Amino acid sequence: MVPRHIRHICSLLAATVALTSMAQIQEEELEDSLQEVIISAHSAQKRMNTVQMGVEKIEISMLTKMPVLFGERDIIKSLQLLPGVKSEGETSGGYQVRGGTASQNLILLDGASIYNSGHLMGIFSAFNDDALINASLYKGMMPAQLGGATSSVFDISTRPGNMQEYHASGSIGLLAAKAMVEGPILRDRASFFVSARRSYVDLLMKAMKDFRNNTLNFYDLNLRLDYKLNNKHRLAATAFYSRDNMGMEDLMTLKWDNTAVGLNWFHSVSDRYYATTRFTYSNYGSDASIDMMNTHYNMVGFIRHLTLHREDHLTLGSHQLNMGLESTLTSLQSAEWNINLLHQRERRKAWTNAFWANDDWHVGKLLDISSGVRLRLFSVLGGVPYYQLDENGDITSIHNPGSGEFVKTYINPEPRLSVKLKLGAKHSLKLGYSRTTQDIHAIRGTTQSMPLDRYTMTSNILKPEIADQVALGWMGMVRDGAYDFSAEAYYKHINNTYDYRDGKSFYSEIEIERIVLGGRGRAYGLELCAHKNKGRLTGWLSYTLSWVENKIPGINEGKWYTAPNDRRHDLNIVSMFRLTKHWDLTATWRYTTGQAMSAPSAKYEIDGTTYYYYAERNGYRAPAYHRLDLSASHTKRIGKRKKLTRIWTFGVYNAYNRYNPFTISFVNDTDKSTGTKAEQTSIYGILPSVSFMLKY
Amino acid sequence: MEVNSLHPRKLIYLMLAVIASLTACKKEIEMDYREVEPLIMIEGRVTNEGVSVLITRTRNMDDPVKGRGLPGAEVCIEADGATEKLLYDPATGCYISPSGMKGQTGKTYRMTADFEGNHYEATSTMPPPADIKATQFKWLDFMGDRMLFFIFEATDPQPDQLNYYWYRMDRETTNPWLLEHTDTSEAYRWGVFDNRGSIPGLIIHDIICMTENNAEKDEEEDRKRLLYDGDIVSLSLMTIDRATFEYFKTLSAGQRGGANPKGNITGGCLGYFTATSITRATPIVYHAE
């Protein structure tokens, strides 16, 4: 039964869409050309022609039209509106793809791995949209050149600087300001691009007596240099740094940062053969401290990758071959902590090598096949202690292999297959299978990504996560791409997913393998999507029906149980309307079935206090989540030569002020007839915002 | 000292709370709880002060009355080859030692209970006591507010090994609202911690009580967490074995995550059995400044 207020919202949206469509038809008769197409008909044709299944290309230009929180556009928040992609929660910058957790996603920025990619605990993403040129999300089905994640790979590329002209822009939002400059260093040969962003909440806090000694800021910086040696060789150097600082006086601090630098060499041998060689370094670090009364606590973690990636593209008749190798040295510190006089540290090293070959074969007019295999070798390296554990997680023996010594090597072949069958000019059927493995494991105490998450790697005890996914899809378009429709069904099975043992948390033991348990997971579902690509009103409607279940020994008596990220229905409506030459209006509405949660089935007393007995894991549902966001932006060229563009963006987050569930807790209350009450905490009500941008 | 009271996770929650303080909202929601067959719950203790075993059943979520101890079980405690059968005490609802048996440091105790055709059994070894040396209240300036801590110091009886502790803080109050709305059998604060990172031979533990701002506001929803002028605060500190530590750790964490603590009693019941040394601090009076 659909609640009444949801029916009202649906009716309102339907009426809005109908009215704006009518307005659009009238306007189309009056105006002979469209000012701007957000997602072009060409996009529909491209989606149709792509043989790869489960891939979503993100239109960066679309971001400028989306409703924003606190005036900041956000690529990750936009991602969460796509079919099969869900937000982790109200404040989180993490996203879940096809039943996976956020820790099973890999985010690559110019080929470098980025972890915990949220500013201010995820309110904003660390990616400044000014610096991005394109991004693709692979929802588990991916070509052989990509790997390292069992749920998805989000491949983001930064924007090269303009080689002919200088451009600059700046914007001020409620919480942050940013600026961008680009231009030629040597005309048509070399260019630069720099963008930077900083929040100024802390500057506002300085004005408040009670908060002036607190810290709450973030900043990020993107830098890119491009150099054309000649028509066949091109170099690009990229750098990215993002940092968050939070602190309550000198008592508690929390900091995290991401650094990624890369050098790319694009080498074209002929029209049929080109290659890319990439050298990247990335470092994710987190640092949490408490210095209060007699408690002095500090925990520092990091993940560092040094990667060489070589990719060769060769066209042979109807075959497009992609072959390559990737070699990565990883150094990971799951934690180094000082708890008063106690100092402990756990570091691990590994060497990962991957070799692949992928063939995109245009068999004929009707049939395309993309097939490949990725061979992944993960070697656990010595130089630090390794141990054996009993079933309780207690250490039974320790051994100390020498530095560089191979402790264990896991070899995993990962076959990939995607088949596209054209059903006439406007319809296609796709079928795919993919195996992916993951060796960086995030162990999370909550359902949301946090800077205090501990990470570890596959070791002598922890095995690589292995996911197998099959998918079947259909896509069709009408009226030359004005509308397109798609449906995709998937089934995924994951081995060796890890979670905390009951009662354990990230600081229970320094040896992370002692506090986790491994198990299996499965997810299946159906994704439906309809795009409207042409006209003044564009947008899409996506719906996902899905199930996610886990089976971990020691939890739920070892039986399959509903995973915390299981949400049965997920509906997103995104509509963008060009009201006038200057005004763009956008509305998004999302509805998600309430999060799976555990609720007690009985209660009892221990030492005089009432506690709850949980008969089943995640057997209940939180109330549904739904939210309407609105945005209006006014764009105008100004100045004598009209070289400046001024953009005002007004947004309303959670326009009908619904308090969505963030947490639900059960508390004893003697005033209740039952002695117990369930309490829901919500984070955001309605939040208006405004931002101002000036572009040159 | 282990940072149990000041868990690092609280850092995150506290920071989120500050960010969200302008718009966050709390409300009660209706839940349709699914009932289950009642389960047996056993809470067994051998201490240097005596022996008690409480057997109860779980209750439905809409049952407001706390469980009473169930008679009719055969409960025994065994140590050093000698077994003593406990007797049901209708006044407390517990099974107690008729001989006034008291636990001794270093001894391993075995509890057996036969009830309604089921046999339950557990063992526990009693660690040495940790003498409480000092207790005090202390205020800390915190973001324009002040936070009240209760701090205790105790001797770590075995500084060369990992020791586990369970503390319980009770308060005696004259506040009329609390007298009407609280159950004195409930602890004001409790927790478990270990001696990781402690100064050898010394345990210092901080317990967060309340903020001055909340005390001044005196809102009904906070009252059970507030201390009032003249409240008498007492502390008992128990040295426990690892199984008991794990039980209470999971009990505390699991209430948020939906996990049931795994006790050390075999036979398919809830609960725990522990042999523990108790020390008690001289009660102190809280004076509002």
What number of structural domains do the residues of chain B give?
A: 2
Strand content of chain A: over 45%
Distance between the amino and carboxyl termini of chain B: 29 Å
CATH class placement of the largest domain in chain B:
Mainly Beta
Mean pLDDT of chain A: 86
- Major sheet size, sense and barrel closure of chain A: 22 strands, antiparallel, barrel
> Within the CATH hierarchy, at the fold level, what is the topology of the largest domain in chain B?
Immunoglobulin-like
Structural class of chain B: mainly beta
* Biggest interface, chains and residue tallies: A-B, 86 and 84 residues
The CATH topology name of chain A reads Maltoporin, Chain A
Number of discrete helical segments of chain B: 4
Give a count of the beta strands of chain B, DSSP E runs of length 2 or more.
17
Q: Mind telling me the CATH class of chain A?
A: Mainly Beta
Distance between the termini of chain A: 52 Å
Structure summary, number of beta strands of chain A: 42
| Percent range of helical residues of chain B | 10-25%
Structural domains of chain A: how many: 1
Strand content of chain B: 35-45%
How are the secondary structure elements laid out?
The complex is a heterodimer of chains A (696) and B (289).
Chain A: H1 4-30, H2 41-49, E1 55-58, H3 60-63, H4 75-79, E2 85-87, E3 95-97, E4 105-109, E5 112-114, E6 118-119, E7 124-125, E8 132-138, E9 152-158, E10 167-172, E11 176-186, E12 190-199, H5 201-205, E13 215-228, E14 233-248, E15 252-270, E16 273-292, E17 295-316, E18 319-339, E19 342-362, E20 367-381, E21 386-389, E22 395-399, E23 406-422, E24 427-438, E25 440-443, E26 454-457, E27 465-478, E28 483-500, E29 516-532, E30 537-551, E31 561-562, E32 569-578, E33 583-592, E34 596-597, E35 602-606, E36 609-613, E37 620-621, E38 625-638, E39 644-653, E40 663-668, E41 676-682, E42 687-695
Parallel strand pairs in A: 4-9
Antiparallel strand pairs in A: 1-8, 2-3, 4-5, 6-7, 8-9, 10-11, 10-42, 11-12, 12-13, 13-14, 14-15, 15-16, 16-17, 17-18, 18-19, 19-20, 20-23, 21-22, 23-24, 24-27, 25-26, 27-28, 28-29, 29-30, 30-31, 30-32, 32-33, 33-38, 34-37, 35-36, 38-39, 39-42, 40-41
Chain B: H1 8-20, E1 25-29, E2 40-47, E3 50-57, E4 74-79, E5 82-85, E6 87-89, E7 94-96, E8 108-115, E9 118-125, E10 132-142, E11 145-155, E12 164-172, H2 176-181, E13 189-194, E14 202-211, H3 212-217, E15 232-240, H4 242-257, E16 270-280, E17 284-285
Parallel strand pairs in B: 2-16
Antiparallel strand pairs in B: 2-3, 3-7, 4-5, 4-8, 6-7, 8-9, 10-11, 11-14, 12-13, 12-15, 15-16, 15-17
